[in-house]
Queue: 2 jobs
Job 1
Amino acid sequence: MEKTTVYATFWERFLSRLIDTLVYLMLIFIPLNSIVLSKSFDLLLDNISNFTLFILIIALIILPFETLMISKLGGTPGKLLIGLRIQKTSGKLLNPKETFIRLTLGRAVSGLFFGLGYFWIFKNEKRQGWHDLINDSVVVRKINYGWLIGLLILIVFAIINVAIVSGVIAGFAANFSFFSHLLG
Amino acid sequence: MKTPNFSEYIKNSFEIVKKNKWLWIFGALVGTGGSFNSGSRISDMLDKNPGQGTQNNLLKDLPKTTSGVLGDATSALSDWFSQVPTFKWVLFTLIIVLLIVMGITIALIIQNWARGALIKGLDKARQGTHVDLKNTSPDGFAYLKRLIGLSLLLGLVVFGLGVAAPFLWVVIFLVFKNIAILKILWIILGILLFIIIFVLTLLLVTIVNVFAQRLIVLENFGVRAAFKKALYISRQTLLASFLTGFINFCFRLMAGILSLVLLAISIGPSSFIAYNLWQSNPVTSVLLITLTAMSFLVFIFFSSCLMAAMNVFSYSNWNQLFNDYIKTDHK
């Protein structure tokens, strides 16, 4: 019997993007701790430069990383965790070139007019956004209750992020005398 | 070439803009990242990331120039800068250059995909074919490589001109430097002459670009062949092209004025009232400020739609001029 394709909803896709965003934010927040705990001006500058370098490296590798993930596995970590798969309408995975186009040109197209292209998912019968339409791709659901797993994962990552940010704030408060001295 | 019927152009373009809203997407993206026909833009970007040696020199100079003003903190900062290991500077520079190259590549892809899709989409719309994102997007990809090639070629031409013109000016200045009258005359006339030549060449390059893009997309030309043929067409249709460009400019200007009027209407009165009510009725004032912010967002939305539509309108006029040339004079 032929399996029917179930297309992922806007909210499922939004959930997967939120998970990805929280993972990336976590990567950014962790090294912030070293900055707020700096005890000397030299160390502070060292940590700020390391942090900047780290952010630049993340910015550089994030696109190749996502391209590789989508073209080889069918989704970014968030999508894979909740059982979504990005594929061509024919069912094949996108090749790296198509994935790169989706991630760059696709995002530019969907981001136009306050992200109207993303909201197009509500309107299209195959739940395609403008970034899907430009290279004939769809996002399909492979697990039925993936959103539930996703929601749990989202909560876990949100808690981790809040904990990290709290740590950063606590570190800043503990080291406040150094910063107030620095600012005169 | 016969004088084009511009009123017909305008009427047809408005009709196409009104009926084919999918084309607005391409219209919104054709201006992404500015024009890469200007090579100087690329070189300007690269100049912002000087080599490590230059950075170190600047940093060594810091105490002399700024520590007197900013005191010990600046001194400590420059000491720290000089202690940063070389590999870190190299890594910084490398990553930033890579990010810039990546950004330029992405902008080139977006811009040229939109151009190709818009030119072809307008042609389809003119023939009465239904146009949407799905059936027009492949056209953008089909001509992407050649349109990027054209962008780079024209960028090189402008860059070459930008380097050669001042160089020539300096050479002639050096020849005249011992003759006071000629020197002063050259300073005034030379600058004026070069500005005029530069502006005219830029206009010509823009017109060549317009025709070359259409030769690639609508007539399936290669980059070099399109460039040569576009140069020829530009000479043949110079007046008509200037007029088309002028019409497009006027409509853009009107759209710009309309945008300003919309902005004034959408946020002007409410922000004025909010400002005056701030002391006597802060709650109403805050509500009005929120309303103003929302109106501003609505304005941004309509303004971006208007600009996208104007780009489609301009491209449509150029397409009609090109088609008229190809049909009446060439074939």
Note: Strands of chain A lie at 84-88, 137-141.
Job 2
Amino acid sequence: MSRRFLASNGGCAYIDIDHVEICLLEVISAFDHVAAWHAMLRIVRTSLDNANQGRRRDNRIQVLVNNSDGQGNSYGSHLNFMIGRRTFDNIFWRKAHYLQFLASFQVSSILLTAQGKVGAENGRPSTPYQLSQRADFFETLQGIQTTYNRPLINARDEALCGRRGFDDPSAPARLHVIFFDSALAHGSAFFRVGPMQLILTLLELGLVNSRLILDDPLAALQCYSHDPTLKARAELISGVRLTALELQSAYLEEVKRHAARGVFEGIVPRADEIVALWEDTLIKFANDDLMALAPRLDWVMKLMAIERALERHPDLDWDSAEIKVIDHMYSSLDNDGLYWAYESSGFAEQLVTPERIGHFTANPPADTRAWTRAMLLRRADPDSIVSVDWDTITFKLRGRYSWPTYRTFDLADPLSFTWAEAHPIFDNSLDIAGLLDGLKSLSAGKSRSFDVLTPDDALTPNDVLAAS
Amino acid sequence: MRFLQRFNDQQLRQAGGDGDPGSADLLQQFRSQGDRLLAAGDEAIQRALAGSNSEAFLRAGRQQGGQ
């Protein structure tokens, strides 16, 4: 099935071979990311319910929000962050320590973002339980590939922001992040984005502390992921050996140091709340208070569920197929899914309200181009829409003498075509041709600059955009 | 192996060892509360375990084509 953009919220969904792919509408804040992600899950759950109507209990379709099938196959949960072209080039082509700084952060962040997995794959040493679903499949530090020899940091260079050239240092770029696990718990989903926004801002500002760099991020990932007791240490280039918690704490301190100088203001929405939740979570880890973290983080919640099952079923052990079934069923979008049981009981912590999630099932965000994309899809005759992509929509319109004419509308800037900019045009245009004329005037003469910031001019608008 | 049991027991010992029996009681109270909420997942676990054939379920989950 080809990719289908949704008029409801500006995201898209489709089936690729044998799996559902959902792509989030562009959002700016980490909290909206959580709401938009759960909104898309809700849309899939509704579709799944409809598809399962009338099916026998033993013949229901299952959709699992996980990242490996336990049989050596992995599939990602990708995130996209809008960054400056110069920062992108610094990470991949000019400044190796930028790449290592980012990789070291991500590797230690599995403490917060991982979904948890029973067993090991891809020839890795066996383990009863590990933090990350994806860790076993990363084999190189960076590269453009996503299906083999997977890189910690993916170098795919496709901005989806119009046609500005790779040689324009002020153009936007897209950081395509293939590292993280899928998340169901709000906290895990939040930590895939919020702290990344802060770290990417440090990279944009050139505030890279090379003392936080791991000597071998790939080895550290294995080491951290395979040890749910969190005692495993990995070596930094300085020779110091840190646990994932200690390294995350060091990154947090670095962020707090810069936050105190206001460097995130005007760049990362609700940065203080991101820092506060990050710190609260690390403190709970430091206090061994995993009971308090189970409602917030997937890998802890799943571990708790499995350990309860093992307690009640002494005939089972970590190698039992039934335990792997629980691993999978944790992420099932069907009503049998364990996560949803914990959510409906009130156990799973909620960082965004059901109302905000509900809002994004039926509405685009007001503050990105997703608003205009959704509204154009609503307004246009479906037969007139020739193609839709993230930064363009092509329409087939009736021209003179009824001959068709084709118009491609550019939505190049993800931070433009917002409700505030575009709704007067929608209110005042009767047909799609008039709408396109009006919207075109919005972009005339506008070309957002993504010049690299310096710490002194950090208030220059240069939002880091999160979508997936 | 019981990862979380070890964490929790360690935490209870620490709380009890600081000379404040109240903090240990509070922690035990939180743990009981957590247990009650977690019990809501037990039914879902039972359903997962009651599946007709776990091995077949796992085999059927084989994926292809993902990134």
Note: Residues 454-464 of chain A have pLDDT under 50 and may be disordered.
